[in-house]
Amino acid sequence: MADMLVAALLLVGAFFGLVGSWGLVRLPQTMQRLHTPTKATTLGVGGVLLASIVYFGGVRGEWSIHELLVTLFLFLTAPVSALMLARAWLHRERERVRATLPRPGASGVDWGVYQPIPEEAEHGAAPKR
Amino acid sequence: MSVRARLRRWLPHPVLSLALILAWVALQNEFAAAHWLMGAIVGVVIPRLLRPFWPDPPPVRSWRAALAYAAVVLWDIAKANVQVAGWVLLRRPETLRSSWLVVPLELRVPEAITLLAGTITMTPGTVSCDLAADGSALLVHCLHTKDAAATVAEIKARYEARLMRMFGEDES
């Protein structure tokens, strides 16, 4: 019984992992491709982790909490890396993309990526000569 | 120096300390006293070293709202994963209507905005891409939406409103 549950969870996890990778291959735009690895993989990894908890806890009788930590670290790191990729792309493609973006509001502010970098001297980082 | 000030000096982030201790013990996967002791050292030293870089952590006003928020987000992640899988598998990519959304922010606490941005990225269909230079809006890329305004309204009602309650910003 527990074996079947483990197998089912593994299959669900593998399915979503596959969908994530498939989306990466199939979607035409860079920003669209950013969606599937951050998303479908959540359930993909989640399914495998649940299977691991059930297997080690239910079948082998060795409860383990490493799976929860993996989930925690994944949830902490996935949005950060996605944001880095998105911002790097916004920056690199700014000539083409900047005009197509909606503005943040009625006032003159722009998105953070397009802010001019403050002078280094302001932070005291530049060596004085 | 009062006890309170001393506590604030040595335990600037009590919740972070607790989380670090639990994470350390969980990493060892054993509940022996030695691991708790080492965890306690980690939990005190790291927040102490972090203090100059993170001077004013906002207090969580409502832990009930925080728990409710976590539950809503976990459920949405599961639900929306299925939805995105459906789009990727069943739709021709050309028919996906991707668009940029601007989510105007009422939240002001930077930590809360970080949480909101992370949540938007983890819930499928949307990735937060940038923050306005003055922190007044989030730039979000949406994989597929028929009604951009409705998606923005949902993000604000489902997540931002709960975060405002969690950090007590709805009172001020």
Please tell me about this protein's structure.
- Chain A: Keywords: Membrane, Transmembrane, Transmembrane helix.
- Chain A: This is Monovalent cation/proton antiporter, MnhG/PhaG subunit.
- Chain A: It comes from Tepidiphilus thermophilus.
- Chain A: GO terms for molecular function: sodium:proton antiporter activity.
- By secondary structure, chain A is mainly alpha-helical.
- Chain A has helices at residues 2-26, 30-33, 35-59, 66-92, 94-97.
- Chain A has a domain at 2-69 and 76-97.
- Chain A is built from five helices and no strands.
- The relative contact order of chain A is 0.10.
- The model of chain A is unreliable at 124-129 (pLDDT under 50).
- Chain B is mainly α.
- Chain B folds into two domains: 3-53, no CATH class; 63-166, Alpha-Beta Plaits (2-Layer Sandwich), CATH 3.30.70.
- Helix content of chain B is 59%, strand content 10%.
- The interface between A and B is large, with 49 and 41 residues.
